[in-house]
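Components:
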Amino acid sequence: MSKTSYRFQKSQRTLMQQMFEAPAIGKMSPMAKILAYTLLGVWSFFVLFPIYWVVITSFKDMTTVNQGPFYIPFIDFQPTLEAWRSQFNEDPFCTVSAIGRQLWLLVYNSAVFVVSPVVALNPMEPQICKIYLAFTNSFVISIFSTGLCVLVGSMAAYALARIKYAPRFGNIMVFVLLLIIVIFATTYVGAPWWASSSVGLALFFFLLRALRGYFKMSLKNGDILFWIISQRILPPIVVVIPIYVMFQAVGMLDTHFALILLYAVANMPIVVWLMYDFFTNLPIELEESAQLDGATRLRIFWEIVLPLTRPGLAATTLLTLVLCWNEYLFAVFLATVKVQTMPIMVAAKNTGEKGILWWEMCAIIVVMIIPVIIMAILLTRFISKGVLMGAVKG
Amino acid sequence: MQGFDRQAAVRFENVEKSFGDVKVLRNFDLEVQPGEFVVLLGASGSGKTTALRILSGLEKPSGGQVYIDEENVTDVLPKYRDISMVFQSYALYPHKTVADNISFPLKVRGMVKSDMDAATLSAAKQVQIEDLLARYPRELSGGQRQRVALARAIIRQPSVFLMDEPLSNLDAKLRGHMRAQLKHMQKSMGITTIYVTHDQIEAMTLAHRVAILEKGVLQQLATPAEIYNNPANLFVAQFIGSPPMNVVHGSLNEGQFITNGVAIQTSVTGQAEKAIMGVRPEDCSIAASAEGTLSGEIFTNELIGDHALVTVDWGDDQISVKAPKDFAGEQGDTVGIIIHRDSLFVFDESNGQRMR
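Structure:
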């Protein structure tokens, strides 16, 4: 670089620029380097220390936890495997054959789920190593609900990004009104649900034709998108009782399917919102070109659009997965015994009589963290830039 | 290279298109013969790309009908129109290799793999990229991407071939090369082609017929020679030709164009209070000041290379003349300009129409 180059002349750059805008990668001054790495180090410490704390606490027992803060194993305190033993060894069902049977159930249930979600799933047996049960429950529920949610959500987002909708506001109101009447008729008048709902649906289509052109105000894609996102504004605690009653009514309490469905619905707004942004940023020529080449919408979506939004898809999947994995509120209501998930296991260590069993809680948390880390490492490979390179122009 | 067996005719009938209140295409009529190469030429915003997109089906016309081979395709989905298109941005699928990009149109039609590979290779050979098949678009140069887009468009032998400014992202040298290649390819395959550009040289060199659009209205549809020699109106006259045609304001009286105190004899009959005379720089020549049709002082003399462009002040107007490259006139010299009567165009100033 020549001497007159503005960016490299230190004297011509403000203090803020000198500190925060390195002239080029690897061109920072030694002082700036030390400062930068110190700040990064401090930040890493803040992020990593809680994990360290959880790991060492899982190797403590009641005395070493209660006697004060000890941080360095073998020097401050003598590590013990007691917490781990109580979770695995001392559980009479934590044998190879029991876990094998559970594993078989897991595979069987997955296969059944893929074939038909309403065919009976074999319930996971409660007489099994508690932590294994919770882990597999969490695993199955998270994977399936994330898959369902990302699939349906990204399709919805794509539709919103590329197809112009204009439903009449009045028609929606008519639908809601008929829905209320149907519910009323079923609950209070005692009409069979199939009769009332088909009459209601028929009436709706009749009115739709009769009132064609009567309503003027229509919703745009932006309104629909906002409506979807607004479903997430409501705190879940508000709706958890109605949801409980609903699943009780259809007899789906304490099933995997209930949680899978519920998580998929609860996370749908986030998926739609995130993916909508990725889809609208795709150059539309690619899709137009594919359209002229003779591809159907579905094919364009699968073969052109989804591969190109892979970074966004990976990020969204990871986020949804973590949200499902950590979910507590719905699980505590809907998963009482058989489909208990990991967060409930963790919370159960806050016992009434013995206080909080920190060491056992931490052991469970360590087990819970590991798959998330693995998943993050697997998915970050896809969260890279430059997928669109070479698509349009040079 | 074998010819295409399906050459379709294309017809626009009274096609209109407006986006909101903006009318981008008005009363657009165009008939393209089977195997013909038609260029839609116009400045940006003239509606040429919109016309192309309406034919492709990506845009719906607000009014009028579009026919391909006597079949009304106005409401037919793009994929059923048997059209392929090269986009200005090439629109290659970045996650597919060159081979997969080229064969995509066949793949969606469910062709067998072996047939597909053979067709891909032959299409790639036609545009000379058969050694790039395993690469990804990001590993290609602009010209190579252009060729991939071309190969993808020709592989399934469409009945109509559309191109939306396909050369405008290339550098000047490559553009000239690709232009020649395109012309050769179109001629040897004989495929009906509609090509959109804002570059008059591309239009003049490639087209069998050129359609000039301005503000959504078709100004003239004719062969390049006809457009150059016989412009229908002032817009076409000024749009075609480089350097652009000289225009001089004046009036027309009994075949004499009167301006700046000079009466010039024209071959036009008629009267007009306000008229415009147009003459191309290459149709004028420099003479001694007494011999010319008119005379004026040299405003500037620019040497272009094979000729010199001399701009001469004439009253309120200026006239540019293509002079021999050894012309040595200096700024301020008085020279005469000879204008041939037959190369002189007269336009009515009120509507811009050519007077004959």
